[in-house]
# Entry
Amino acid sequence: MAFLFYSYFSIRFYHHQQYVLKTYIILILLVLCRVACYGQQGLGDTVQMQEIVITSGNAVYWSKDTMVYVADSFNKTPHNMTEDVLRKMPGIDVSINGKITIEGKEVKRIFINGTEAGVNDIKAITRNLPAEIINKIQVTDLYSDEAVATGLKDGSSEKIINLQLKKEYDGGLYGRAGAGYGNKGLYQANLFANYMKGATRITATGLAGNTGNADVNSDGVDNNSISSRQPNGITSQRSFGVNYSLQSKDAKLKLSGSGEVSANKNSLLQTSLRTTFLPGDTVLYQRQRTNSITDGLTGRLSARAIYTFSKTASLNTNLNITSNRRTPGSNTLDTTGYNNIADVDFTRQALKGSLTQGAGVNFSSMLQKKSQVSSRVFLLKYSLSYTPSSTFDTTMNSSRYEDIPGGSVNNFFSKQERTQLNQSVGAQLAEPIGKAGLASLEYTLQWQQSQELRNVLKDTLGLLYRDSVQSNEYEYALWEHNIQARYQYTREKTTTIAGLRVQPFTRYNRYVGMSNSNVTYAAVNYFPLINFRYKISKRTRADVNYSGTVRAPNIRDLQPTPDYRDSFNVFIGNPGLLPEASHQVAMSYNYLNPIKQHIFWVNANYNTVNNKIINETEVTAGKRVTRPVKADGVYNA
# Structure
């Protein structure tokens, strides 16, 4: 048993001089199992109830394509947080660990007064923002910047929540902090602060602890539930972040962004038993016990600027910068036996240490120009992504066969450097045709360049030699043209979008130092686009959507060089892999009747993939050799 004494307080100060101070002392009983209990615990599929009764006739209603909830209709208890109110709203599912699902889609982004709250975890907002200052909670589909600019919404969207705050709380400062300490070294400290005035908002969040709770509002969370624990080991974490949104006085310049620094340490003890049935009634038993510790440090910066030159021209720019450092280490003991689970024929101990450092820069910009006469829209787009990384590995293996005297020692030291550069440039023209039609023509050129250099040194009798088998230098390049034509036709109750996407591409990969290793592959993919929306009534709508995508193999899957650093598990890439081609069909039906206080929705999805990349594993004498291969006929529904 472990005990944690935890207290928190909150301070609110608004422009009308309302000041509330509250302090609660809470005793939380944590039942901590052995580290081995923290295995992979997946959440089961959420079953959406068919019909939910609303307590007030005007508590929820449709406004165009947005479902609006009146917050006070669901907020009957003082000092509720946003998450407490969301749990009571029909059509919104909130799991015990704060995951929000709407119409089968997870909500990963949350907005305040129409501006995104750039937090890494939306629970930092939902579990700390008081419900009493919220006027309405709006649920809608968020489309891309291109779709919003042109009005061509082809079904590619995500569910978001927008919190519309009450006007009387404009100019308010709200803060919430908590701290606790218990036996067995348990501790928890949290910070949340939010300031709003007009179009300006500044939010700060902080966390430090090793209890597994990731928010200030830990009271009311069932810490004994498996689903609320950390899924892999025990993690201690420390983080601090700030996000903001503001605009100029003339509203021509709108800025938003965030910054966060986080450090964590994960400890995991894991045991496994694998049974493999081999030909000839032979059974292979493999036991593994691994004790691992991983330290990580991550920094993130993001900024978004929208500048409006005039009523017909604007520039939208986004910048994201990340930096990370990880130092995982592990001690693994493997034993192998045949036919009798108690027998041990082979033993191996592996010590591994690693240092990985990486960074990433993502930049995108879109220039929008509208015609004052014809409502024609022209877009010019550019994006860049650059991600360099380096990894230093140390692997020390000692093994022995029980029936053979002596043993063997294999020590490897490796350095791996990888860079990837993605760029794209494109243009789109959207032209109204008549009163109900809209045509769009789009072209995008994308090119990707990747390079990986790996040097492996093997320790032989105290001398280091370069392992020419595992060392390599690999280059990969992809050029893709995306040509897309679409037509949208809108009537009073229906919106239909049909189009065709053509993707000619050329792929090149080369293993430096190996003769005849240059591989060039070129092909053309064709995908029709279909989206149909039928507004049956003011309360009911139905959607049908089809789309297709192509995903190229990553550089690790393409490398033909075997990786022997783990003598029990060898990985060999496959340079003959083809890009995955997927086809998705989605259907949905929504019904809302505020008068009868009923809400109902249903979703159906089907996805099939050609050239699906899967791993093929061959077991020989206790060694597992894994190689990526393609598979057709893969589908899910």
